[in-house]
Predict the 3D structure of the following.
Amino acid sequence: MESVVKTIPSVLILLGPPGAGKGTQARMLEEEFGLVQLSTGDLLRAAVAAGTETGQKAKAVMDAGDLVSDDIVIAILRDRLGEPDCARGVILDGFPRTTVQAEALDDLLAETGQKINAAVSLEVDDAAMVARISGRYTCAGCGEGYHDRFKQPQRTGMCDKCGGADFKRRADDNAETVAQRLQAYHAQTAPLITYYDSKDVLQRIDAMGDIAAIATDLTAMVEKSMT
Ligand code: ADP
Ligand code: ADP
Ligand code: ZN
């Protein structure tokens, strides 16, 4: 395995079902703590849009709501972790999603003698997750996330962050795919809660509240984990 040559000061993991708010919270932590959000979903969507070999392999799997193979995702993650900006510290959003990926991450970090600061499980029930996903959209310019009901731009049709007026919705945010993604989460990703608990890095957050309240809890937790 190719190594990540440098040490990354902080490694935070956000665990949680699709729609739990991982991306929303990761972007806020990124600004607050100067960390880099690393979303394997975003990296895979970029590969699909660019039409790379990886993207071509991943597309049908993502459209069906299944998990992309561990080999592909681990390779993408390893490449991204090796880029210079990750030296500021990273928030892993949507990775790992299987035990094989979690073990690969442990191996990768062990190469440079580092540890995971915290693996935070954002806990929401299935109904909330479906409601969050079904109204989700993002700014095409800067990636800021919005929701039809829960997080509207301050000025209708204009992104709060970049002023852009172009928004997009994900192809996999539809009812059939969501059911499959939820099943994949319960079968393959939820066991990671026990995995990280047994390593004493698990933290749980009640993610049923509003975005700001969750951010407050998460910030306190992250501050503690970084000291
Ligand atoms: P994930 O990255 O876990 O899939 P997102 O951060 O994309 O989730 O959030 C899913 C959708 O729900 C987005 O439209 C987002 O604006 C909205 N959202 C995020 N957190 C909350 C929350 N606490 N309450 C209500 N809606 C939320
Ligand atoms: P969500 O907002 O549902 O959490 P993501 O953007 O993280 O979605 O992921 C979208 C899709 O990309 C997933 O349904 C899956 O097909 C694929 N994917 C993302 N991360 C991983 C991963 N770590 N392992 C396998 N597949 C992944
Ligand atoms: Zn924007």
